[in-house]
Structure formats: C-alpha cells, structure tokens
Amino acid sequence: PKRWPAPTVNPTGSNGIDGHSETRRHVMSRNKKLGAPEDIFDVPGNKECADCGAAGPTWASWNLGILICEKCCGMHRGLGTHISKVKSTRMDKWDNDQFL
Q1: Which pLDDT value is given to residue 14?
Q2: What is the pTM for the complete model shown?
C-alpha cells in the first residue's frame, strides 16, 4: 500500500497537506484585508450611494465598481451574484483584485 508523507508543521502552526507547509486557504487569507481601502471614499461620487444618492454609503458592488447604501445593498443582493457582488466596505474581507 502507498503511504503518504506525514504533513509538516511550519512555524506559524498551520498544518500542511501532502507535505506542503501551508494550505491554500491559509495563503489566500493572507492576501485579504478587512474592509475596503479608505481612499475609495475620496473618489468623486463615492460619498453618496450610486443608486439613490443617500449620503455615506457603506456597501459596495465590487464587480460593478460602485458604492451603495444599506437599502440599495438589499436590492443588489436580490439581483443575484451573477449581476452584482456585494460586500461591506467595513466588515468584509477584500481580495487585492476586488478593490474598486
């Protein structure tokens, strides 16, 4: 019978898979940042909701590149992720390629 190598443990404490020192999930989580970068609020037009004009939007449709309010966020979620991919600008983790 074939024996798989014992997983290794790296100094950060993450268990490896098939002898690798870090799991893909662990590596991917390091590339994410909590919340959108603050400078997106300095872009002209980003101080109000792109849909209804409400001040201080805290949500984003990152695939459309717009900031939206909480009310419009609910409508965007209802459209489905094939149309609008919604994230909180404060509470969700953002990949580097999701920045507006």
Answers
A1: 47
A2: 0.65
- The string of DSSP letters for 43-99 reads STTTTB-TTT--BS--EEETTTTEEE-HHHHHHHHHH-TTT--EEETTTSEEEGGG-
Let me know how long the chain is. Answer: 100
> Residue 87: which of 37, 52, 48 has the closest Cα?
37
Rounded to 5 degrees, φ, ψ at 41 are -75, -15
What pLDDT, on the 0 to 100 scale, is given for residue 24? Answer: 47
CA dist 60 → 8, 16, 70, 96 (Å):
40, 35, 9, 15
Radius of gyration of the chain (CA): 19
Q: Beta 59-61 vs 66-68: how paired, if at all?
A: antiparallel
Q: Which residues contact 18 (CB under 8 A, 6 or more apart)?
A: 4, 5, 7
